[in-house]
Amino acid sequence: MGKTRKTPPRAAQAAGLDAPAPRSDSALDRELEALEARLRDGMTDLSRMRRHVRAQAKTEWGGIRHEWDALDGRVRTIAIALGVAFFLGAYFFYMNLGWYADQRALPESSDWLLDRLPAWNVVPLLSWGWLALHAWAVGVAVLYHPRRMPFLLFMLGVYLFVRTLYVFLSPIGAPAQILDMRELDGLFALVAGEYTFQNEFIFSGHTAVPFLFFLFFDTRWQKGVMLVGSLTMAFAVLVTRNHYAVDVLSAYLVGYSVFALSGWLFRAMRPAGGAASQASAESIALDG
Predict the structure, then answer these.
(1) Any idea where the domains of the chain sit in the sequence?
(2) Which residues, in sequence order, are CB contacts of 286 under 8 Å at separation 6+?
(3) Residue 192 β-bridge partners
(4) Could you report the per-residue pLDDT of 234-246, keeping only the tens digit for each?
(5) DSSP assignment, residue 196?
(6) Is the pTM of this model over 0.85?
């Protein structure tokens, strides 16, 4: 008969260490209860978040309706029509003098900052990014600031008049090594020479217009979006060599001056007289 081979104690001990210790039913029940508690807490937080979002949306919609209900329909129509007419007149002025500015042969140049910045092709940011930013800004202005739309149109018209004079009187041509947006972007190729022009450098419209919206808006999140957009455009026009550093600096200085001048002129045009005139003036917020 063969002898039974005994397992050495150390081998048996090692085998016992390798095998997982079975968990008791009570430990498993405690883990399941903890998991159920976490799921309940998660569902409670989700319900609370859903209620908060609904309340915020209701508050936002209530604010929009209040702005529109406070605006007299006849006054709104007349004021916005006048604002549109002034803006279109300013744009017609810009198109004519801009075409003249493009006929001049102006010298190329550079500046201290452009000589030290890298050249990057972010032209789509200057076309589609700029378009998306301003589509958002116009949408917010129409929804949240309908009473101030006449002032917005008036301010943009003043901006166009001022910038057109700068473009017309500027003796400096394009920066050296400019990345031509007409050749690198399909959107600019469609509007160049008709609605935008090549010799329009002082000051940067890409930077100034978002900054004007930043000054126009009155809530933190609206202002924040437009300020970040303006700074992004300022960076983009420099690294693409589409503006000089002084163009970007002037955009903020002249932009603030345009905002202040527009507010002063708009207030000066407020109707004077009786209670009816005062009510008509108050139904259109001027500059905040």
Answers:
(1) 23-69, 71-282
(2) 148, 151, 263, 266, 267, 270
(3) 196
(4) 999 999 999 999 9
(5) B
(6) no
